[in-house]
Protein backbone atom coordinates (compact mmCIF):
# COMPACT_ATOMS: atom_id res chain seq x y z
CA UNK A 1 0.00 0.00 0.00
CA UNK A 2 2.83 2.36 0.92
CA UNK A 3 4.69 1.65 -2.31
CA UNK A 4 1.55 2.50 -4.28
CA UNK A 5 1.32 5.78 -2.41
CA UNK A 6 5.01 6.53 -3.01
CA UNK A 7 4.64 5.71 -6.70
CA UNK A 8 1.64 7.98 -6.98
CA UNK A 9 3.54 10.77 -5.24
CA UNK A 10 6.50 10.34 -7.57
CA UNK A 11 4.27 10.50 -10.66
CA UNK A 12 2.52 13.63 -9.37
CA UNK A 13 5.92 15.24 -8.73
CA UNK A 14 7.13 14.42 -12.24
CA UNK A 15 4.03 15.88 -13.87
CA UNK A 16 4.06 19.01 -11.74
CA UNK A 17 7.79 19.75 -11.91
CA UNK A 18 7.87 21.68 -15.22
CA UNK A 19 5.09 24.13 -14.33
CA UNK A 20 6.37 24.40 -10.79
CA UNK A 21 9.85 25.33 -12.03
CA UNK A 22 8.34 27.91 -14.33
CA UNK A 23 6.44 29.46 -11.42
CA UNK A 24 9.55 29.40 -9.22
CA UNK A 25 11.65 31.11 -11.91
CA UNK A 26 8.95 33.76 -12.30
CA UNK A 27 9.04 34.44 -8.57
CA UNK A 28 12.82 34.62 -8.65
CA UNK A 29 12.77 37.13 -11.50
CA UNK A 30 10.17 39.23 -9.74
CA UNK A 31 12.61 39.78 -6.90
CA UNK A 32 14.76 41.90 -9.22
CA UNK A 33 13.80 45.50 -8.88
CA UNK A 34 14.17 46.23 -12.60
CA UNK A 35 11.88 43.33 -13.58
CA UNK A 36 9.25 44.27 -11.06
CA UNK A 37 9.28 47.89 -12.21
CA UNK A 38 8.54 46.72 -15.75
CA UNK A 39 6.09 43.88 -15.16
CA UNK A 40 3.68 45.41 -12.67
CA UNK A 41 2.80 48.66 -14.45
CA UNK A 42 2.15 46.56 -17.60
CA UNK A 43 -0.20 44.29 -15.69
CA UNK A 44 -2.00 47.35 -14.41
CA UNK A 45 -2.59 48.65 -17.93
CA UNK A 46 -3.75 45.33 -19.33
CA UNK A 47 -6.11 44.06 -16.72
CA UNK A 48 -7.13 47.35 -15.23
CA UNK A 49 -10.81 47.10 -14.44
CA UNK A 50 -12.84 48.01 -11.42
CA UNK A 51 -14.16 44.57 -10.57
CA UNK A 52 -10.81 42.76 -10.71
CA UNK A 53 -8.06 45.25 -9.83
CA UNK A 54 -4.61 43.91 -10.81
CA UNK A 55 -2.48 42.14 -8.22
CA UNK A 56 -0.08 44.67 -6.70
CA UNK A 57 2.94 43.62 -4.70
CA UNK A 58 4.85 46.09 -2.54
CA UNK A 59 8.58 46.50 -2.92
CA UNK A 60 9.22 45.14 0.55
CA UNK A 61 7.78 41.70 -0.17
CA UNK A 62 10.20 39.04 -1.25
CA UNK A 63 8.73 36.66 -3.79
CA UNK A 64 11.40 33.98 -3.86
CA UNK A 65 12.04 32.21 -0.58
CA UNK A 66 11.82 28.74 0.89
CA UNK A 67 8.35 29.59 2.26
CA UNK A 68 7.07 30.93 -1.07
CA UNK A 69 8.37 27.89 -2.95
CA UNK A 70 6.63 25.58 -0.49
CA UNK A 71 3.38 27.55 -0.81
CA UNK A 72 3.45 27.53 -4.62
CA UNK A 73 4.17 23.80 -4.68
CA UNK A 74 1.31 23.19 -2.25
CA UNK A 75 -1.06 25.19 -4.49
CA UNK A 76 -0.05 23.34 -7.64
CA UNK A 77 -0.43 19.99 -5.91
CA UNK A 78 -3.87 20.80 -4.51
CA UNK A 79 -5.04 21.99 -7.92
CA UNK A 80 -3.74 18.85 -9.61
CA UNK A 81 -5.23 16.41 -7.10
CA UNK A 82 -8.58 18.16 -6.57
CA UNK A 83 -11.72 16.13 -7.17
CA UNK A 84 -13.83 19.09 -8.34
CA UNK A 85 -14.15 19.32 -12.12
CA UNK A 86 -16.43 21.39 -14.32
CA UNK A 87 -19.57 19.47 -15.26
CA UNK A 88 -19.04 16.77 -12.63
CA UNK A 89 -20.54 16.09 -9.22
CA UNK A 90 -19.60 18.71 -6.61
CA UNK A 91 -17.57 17.31 -3.68
CA UNK A 92 -19.81 17.51 -0.62
CA UNK A 93 -17.14 18.25 1.96
CA UNK A 94 -17.54 19.24 5.58
CA UNK A 95 -17.42 22.86 6.74
CA UNK A 96 -17.91 24.48 10.15
CA UNK A 97 -20.52 27.16 10.83
CA UNK A 98 -19.27 30.19 12.73
CA UNK A 99 -22.43 30.77 14.73
CA UNK A 100 -22.64 27.46 16.56
CA UNK A 101 -19.51 25.59 15.39
CA UNK A 102 -21.78 22.96 13.91
CA UNK A 103 -20.48 20.80 11.07
CA UNK A 104 -22.41 21.04 7.84
CA UNK A 105 -21.83 19.88 4.30
CA UNK A 106 -21.29 22.30 1.43
CA UNK A 107 -24.38 21.13 -0.47
CA UNK A 108 -26.55 21.78 2.61
CA UNK A 109 -26.34 25.44 1.59
CA UNK A 110 -27.76 24.83 -1.88
CA UNK A 111 -31.45 25.69 -2.15
CA UNK A 112 -33.29 23.46 -4.61
CA UNK A 113 -32.15 24.31 -8.12
CA UNK A 114 -30.68 27.73 -7.35
CA UNK A 115 -26.98 28.23 -8.20
CA UNK A 116 -24.70 28.27 -5.14
CA UNK A 117 -21.60 30.46 -5.36
CA UNK A 118 -18.54 29.25 -3.41
CA UNK A 119 -15.83 31.80 -2.68
CA UNK A 120 -12.70 30.29 -1.10
CA UNK A 121 -10.08 32.50 0.52
CA UNK A 122 -8.51 33.96 3.64
CA UNK A 123 -7.84 37.35 5.24
CA UNK A 124 -4.13 37.20 4.36
CA UNK A 125 -4.75 36.87 0.63
CA UNK A 126 -4.40 40.42 -0.82
CA UNK A 127 -6.16 39.77 -4.18
CA UNK A 128 -9.04 38.06 -2.37
CA UNK A 129 -9.43 40.93 0.06
CA UNK A 130 -9.20 43.72 -2.54
CA UNK A 131 -11.98 42.02 -4.56
CA UNK A 132 -14.21 41.24 -1.60
CA UNK A 133 -16.35 44.37 -1.99
CA UNK A 134 -16.88 43.62 -5.69
CA UNK A 135 -17.84 40.06 -4.74
CA UNK A 136 -20.35 41.38 -2.24
CA UNK A 137 -21.90 43.65 -4.86
CA UNK A 138 -22.26 40.77 -7.33
CA UNK A 139 -23.82 38.58 -4.64
CA UNK A 140 -26.34 41.30 -3.79
CA UNK A 141 -27.06 42.03 -7.42
CA UNK A 142 -27.93 38.38 -8.11
CA UNK A 143 -29.45 37.49 -4.74
CA UNK A 144 -32.82 36.87 -6.39
CA UNK A 145 -31.46 33.96 -8.45
CA UNK A 146 -28.48 32.59 -6.46
CA UNK A 147 -27.04 31.94 -3.00
CA UNK A 148 -23.45 32.18 -1.80
CA UNK A 149 -21.05 30.92 0.82
CA UNK A 150 -17.57 32.23 1.65
CA UNK A 151 -15.39 29.29 2.72
CA UNK A 152 -12.48 30.30 4.94
CA UNK A 153 -9.48 28.11 4.12
CA UNK A 154 -5.89 28.07 5.36
CA UNK A 155 -4.08 31.43 5.32
CA UNK A 156 -2.59 32.35 1.93
CA UNK A 157 0.18 34.44 3.52
CA UNK A 158 0.43 33.50 7.19
CA UNK A 159 2.58 35.80 9.30
CA UNK A 160 4.75 32.79 10.24
CA UNK A 161 5.12 31.62 6.63
CA UNK A 162 5.20 33.45 3.29
CA UNK A 163 4.00 36.66 4.87
CA UNK A 164 2.82 39.63 2.83
CA UNK A 165 2.79 43.21 4.01
CA UNK A 166 0.01 43.85 1.46
CA UNK A 167 -2.42 41.70 3.45
CA UNK A 168 -4.84 43.80 5.53
CA UNK A 169 -4.41 41.42 8.50
CA UNK A 170 -1.44 39.50 9.86
CA UNK A 171 -2.57 36.04 10.96
CA UNK A 172 -0.36 33.02 11.73
CA UNK A 173 -1.08 29.48 10.45
CA UNK A 174 -4.14 27.95 12.10
CA UNK A 175 -3.03 25.40 14.66
CA UNK A 176 -6.52 24.44 15.79
CA UNK A 177 -10.13 24.98 14.73
CA UNK A 178 -10.46 27.93 17.14
CA UNK A 179 -7.66 29.76 15.27
CA UNK A 180 -9.47 29.22 11.99
CA UNK A 181 -12.85 30.25 13.37
CA UNK A 182 -11.51 33.47 14.84
CA UNK A 183 -9.85 34.36 11.51
CA UNK A 184 -13.15 33.57 9.77
CA UNK A 185 -14.92 35.92 12.19
CA UNK A 186 -12.73 38.77 10.95
CA UNK A 187 -13.80 37.91 7.40
CA UNK A 188 -17.39 37.76 8.54
CA UNK A 189 -17.17 41.36 9.72
CA UNK A 190 -15.73 42.40 6.34
CA UNK A 191 -18.69 41.01 4.41
CA UNK A 192 -21.84 41.74 6.38
CA UNK A 193 -24.77 39.88 4.90
CA UNK A 194 -22.65 37.12 3.34
CA UNK A 195 -22.56 33.67 4.90
CA UNK A 196 -19.03 32.74 6.02
CA UNK A 197 -18.10 29.17 7.03
CA UNK A 198 -14.71 27.61 7.84
CA UNK A 199 -13.00 24.67 6.19
CA UNK A 200 -12.48 21.76 8.61
CA UNK A 201 -9.02 21.33 10.13
CA UNK A 202 -8.23 18.45 7.77
CA UNK A 203 -8.66 21.02 4.98
CA UNK A 204 -10.97 18.73 3.06
CA UNK A 205 -12.79 21.50 1.15
CA UNK A 206 -9.52 23.14 0.21
CA UNK A 207 -8.21 19.81 -1.09
CA UNK A 208 -11.40 18.76 -2.90
CA UNK A 209 -11.78 22.12 -4.67
CA UNK A 210 -8.07 22.94 -5.12
CA UNK A 211 -8.98 26.25 -3.52
CA UNK A 212 -5.62 27.59 -2.27
CA UNK A 213 -4.70 30.54 -2.57
CA UNK A 214 -8.23 31.63 -3.55
CA UNK A 215 -10.86 30.35 -5.98
CA UNK A 216 -14.45 30.71 -7.18
CA UNK A 217 -17.03 28.05 -8.04
CA UNK A 218 -20.73 27.83 -8.84
CA UNK A 219 -22.65 24.66 -8.04
CA UNK A 220 -26.11 23.80 -9.26
CA UNK A 221 -28.16 20.65 -8.85
CA UNK A 222 -25.19 18.99 -7.10
CA UNK A 223 -22.91 19.65 -10.08
CA UNK A 224 -20.13 22.13 -10.81
CA UNK A 225 -21.37 24.60 -13.41
CA UNK A 226 -18.58 27.16 -13.10
CA UNK A 227 -14.99 26.59 -12.03
CA UNK A 228 -12.77 29.65 -11.67
CA UNK A 229 -9.06 29.41 -12.37
CA UNK A 230 -6.47 28.76 -9.67
CA UNK A 231 -5.93 31.94 -7.64
CA UNK A 232 -4.51 34.48 -7.64
CA UNK A 233 -4.06 34.62 -11.47
CA UNK A 234 -7.33 32.88 -12.26
CA UNK A 235 -9.45 34.50 -9.56
CA UNK A 236 -11.92 36.77 -11.39
CA UNK A 237 -15.11 38.25 -10.00
CA UNK A 238 -15.96 39.46 -13.52
CA UNK A 239 -16.23 35.82 -14.71
CA UNK A 240 -18.59 35.09 -11.85
CA UNK A 241 -20.71 38.12 -12.76
CA UNK A 242 -20.77 37.15 -16.45
CA UNK A 243 -21.91 33.61 -15.62
CA UNK A 244 -24.72 34.89 -13.39
CA UNK A 245 -25.71 37.46 -15.99
CA UNK A 246 -26.03 34.77 -18.66
CA UNK A 247 -27.91 32.55 -16.28
CA UNK A 248 -30.36 35.32 -15.46
CA UNK A 249 -30.98 35.88 -19.16
CA UNK A 250 -31.56 32.18 -19.81
CA UNK A 251 -33.96 31.96 -16.88
CA UNK A 252 -35.76 35.06 -18.12
CA UNK A 253 -36.02 33.60 -21.62
CA UNK A 254 -37.42 30.29 -20.47
CA UNK A 255 -39.96 32.18 -18.38
CA UNK A 256 -41.00 34.14 -21.45
CA UNK A 257 -41.43 30.91 -23.36
CA UNK A 258 -43.69 29.55 -20.66
CA UNK A 259 -45.77 32.73 -20.75
CA UNK A 260 -46.09 32.64 -24.55
CA UNK A 261 -47.19 28.99 -24.49
C1 LIG B 1 -4.65 22.07 7.42
O1 LIG B 1 -4.10 23.37 7.31
C2 LIG B 1 -3.47 23.87 8.48
C3 LIG B 1 -2.97 25.25 8.17
O2 LIG B 1 -3.98 26.20 8.24
C4 LIG B 1 -2.36 22.94 8.91
O3 LIG B 1 -1.81 23.40 10.12
C5 LIG B 1 -2.90 21.53 9.08
O4 LIG B 1 -1.84 20.65 9.38
C6 LIG B 1 -3.58 21.07 7.83
N1 LIG B 1 -4.18 19.77 8.05
C7 LIG B 1 -3.86 18.69 7.37
C8 LIG B 1 -4.55 17.42 7.77
O5 LIG B 1 -3.06 18.71 6.47
TrEMBL record:
Membrane topology, record value: Single-pass membrane protein
Q: Which family does it belong to?
A: Belongs to the iodothyronine deiodinase family.
Q: Name one GO molecular function term.
A: thyroxine 5-deiodinase activity
Instruction: Note whether Zinc-finger occurs among the keywords.
Output: no
Q: What is this protein called?
A: Iodothyronine deiodinase
* Localization (cell): Endomembrane system
The keyword Transmembrane helix appears for this protein: yes
Q: Cross-referenced InterPro entries, in alphabetical order?
A: Iodothyronine_deiodinase, Iodothyronine_deiodinase_AS, Iodothyronine_deiodinase_I/III
The biological processes this protein is annotated with in GO are: hormone biosynthetic process; thyroid hormone metabolic process
Amino acid sequence: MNTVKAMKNAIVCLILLPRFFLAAIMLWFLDFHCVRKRVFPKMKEQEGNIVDPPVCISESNRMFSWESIKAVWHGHKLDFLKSAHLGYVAPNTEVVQLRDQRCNRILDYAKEKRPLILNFGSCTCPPFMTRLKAFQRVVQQYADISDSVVVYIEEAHPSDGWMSSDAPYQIPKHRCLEDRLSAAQIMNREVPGCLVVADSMDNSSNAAYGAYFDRLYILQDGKIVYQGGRGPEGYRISELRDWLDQYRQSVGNSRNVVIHV
